[in-house]
Amino acid sequence: MSSPAIRPGVKRLGIFGGTFDPVHTGHLILARDILERAGLDHIVFLPAARNPLKTDGPLASGKDRADMLRAALRGSDGFSVSTVDIDRPPPSFALETVAALRREWPDACFAWIIGRDQLSGLHRWHRIDDLAAEVEFIVLRRPGPDTGLPERPSLRLRVMDTRLMELSSTEIRQRIAAGKSVDFFVPSAVIEVIDKRSLYATA
Questions:
Q1: Residues forming a β-bridge with 164
Q2: 123: domain CATH number?
Q3: pTM of structure
Q4: Cα radius of gyration (the chain)
Q5: Does residue 23 carry a pLDDT above 80?
Q6: Burial class, 56, CB count within 10 angstroms (exposed 0-12 / middle 13-18 / buried 19+)
Q7: Rounded to 5 degrees, what are φ and ψ at 158?
Q8: Helices (H), 124-187
């Protein structure tokens, strides 16, 4: 396997992980907001492999989800897709992901983007203190009760308010399975991939 190309000029790199099953306009608006408001130079979208803390998984294959992301981001500066998680055998751990990305962006400071709902389980992440030495966590605050930040000195946390996006991949899959239009829910380039490959015919 050839070595990844080193990406110069990126000082602050955001890591935006998720199933993206499929990616939708809410994901893209959120990423643009974070890029600008957090002062990042670049955000890499990271389609997830099997989460070691969950028993269920995405419906579309890793390749399909990565291709949908590439279609959605085509022509947009400041964003790219990494398949380091789906290219290696599961389970996938964030610390290994960061090590892989570090080979491509050796001089960047990394910020891992998570939802506020993930904070309570952050202590269960594999070798969390080692991970915390490598990344800052950008925590997306959403409407609802604020349970406070975890008391773990090693964590570097930056909390950001986010837009309320009433849109989910689950709803999109259900609409496709029911034969309803998803125009404006997802970019047209993503719809082309979904239609061509007959994705989400059942949800």
A1: none
A2: 3.40.50.620
A3: 0.89
A4: 17
A5: yes
A6: exposed
A7: -125, 115
A8: 128-134, 169-177
